[in-house]
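Per your request, structure below.
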């Protein structure tokens, strides 16, 4: 180690290790290196790291505790600054039903053999390197998704903002449905940033699909799951093919990484974004999109009959304005408006 850990750092590391945090997450929060945390973990505490590997694949049994408790702990000790932003994606299993054809079928309820269910879930906190992933591979049946849904509901309950591709129309509605079917309590509804709707509001892209947007706007394109193309991937999973399961895991995790990067690319351009400055316990002037204090004066801007200070964020590049008018009392009296 290049620097001795202070008593406060050691105590914080102990608490975080008990919660299952990774070396990288602990290091970023206590202000040291992952190597120093790993040394303290193994040499002083005798607890080798075994929670995650670098790809997000669980190396041991994964629980929701690290992500769920992390924000509460950091808030309690006064270190959490900014909103808790969660990007997530779910994959689902199809209905199994009886039909007499392959085109334009109207399936009645009594023709459904097996209902749909969640197959896998990946989720990531903004600012954290790790992706939480879980699937139903080890369950009695692959449609037993209750525990997995409960864990995601706990994450959603802790999130201030959730991010996802088509998350409003698909993922959140599916999660609510499965949670109710399992008798789970409602989670606290977070604010939602749907990257598909964000892209649609920003500009006229050729396509608003994740495949197109992530390829052209980020360095993390959506996975093509080429080994099991199209429905072959879901068919392989339902048949118990372990290679298909691994490809599903990689596909699900990559979707979350691609979606988060797409969100960050779109965020400076979006006008209807939650004001993240609310989530900081200070009175500093901050960018309403990313929370940065690196705002530069950019003259003034006019809205309606009022003039405001204009700012540009040096970190995300987004533009913003002050909330209070610069108009003098005499100016306000003199201005008239159209009818």
């Amino acid at each position: 180690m290049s620097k001795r850990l202070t008593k406060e750092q050691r105590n914080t590391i102990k608490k975080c290790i008990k919660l299952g945090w990774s070396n990288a997450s602990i290091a970023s929060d206590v202000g040291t290196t992952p190597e120093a945390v790993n040394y303290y973990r193994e040499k002083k505490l005798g607890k080798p790291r075994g929670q995650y590997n670098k790809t997000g694949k669980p190396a041991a049994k994964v629980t929701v505790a690290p992500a769920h408790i992390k924000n509460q702990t950091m808030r309690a000790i006064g270190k959490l600054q900014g909103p808790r932003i969660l990007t997530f994606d779910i994959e689902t299993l199809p209905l199994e039903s009886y039909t007499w054809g392959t085109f334009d079928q109207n399936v009645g309820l009594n023709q459904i053999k097996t209902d749909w269910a969640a197959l896998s879930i990946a989720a990531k906190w903004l600012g954290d390197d790790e992706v939480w992933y879980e699937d139903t591979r080890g369950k009695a049946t692959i449609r037993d998704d209750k525990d997995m849904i409960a864990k995601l509901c706990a994450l959603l309950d802790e999130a201030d903002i959730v991010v996802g591709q088509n998350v409003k129309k698909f993922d959140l509605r599916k999660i609510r449905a499965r949670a109710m079917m399992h008798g789970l309590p409602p989670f606290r509804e977070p604010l939602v940033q749907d990257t598909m709707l964000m892209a649609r509001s920003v500009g006229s892209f050729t396509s608003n699909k994740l495949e197109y947007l992530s390829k052209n706007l980020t360095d993390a394109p959506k996975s093509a799951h080429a080994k099991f193309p199209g429905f072959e991937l879901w068919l392989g999973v339902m048949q118990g093919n372990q290679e298909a399961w691994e490809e599903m895991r990689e596909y699900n995790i990559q979707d979350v990484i691609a979606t988060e990067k797409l969100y960050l690319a779109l965020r400076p351009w979006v006008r209807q974004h939650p004001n993240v400055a609310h989530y900081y316990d200070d009175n500093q002037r901050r960018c309403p999109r990313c929370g940065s204090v690196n705002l530069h004066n950019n003259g003034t801007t006019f809205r309606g009959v009022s003039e405001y200070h204009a700012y540009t964020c040096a970190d995300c590049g987004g533009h913003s304005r002050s909330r209070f008018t610069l108009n003098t009392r005499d100016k306000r009296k003199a201005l008239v408006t159209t009818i």
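The longest helix spans residues 242-266.

Regards,
D.
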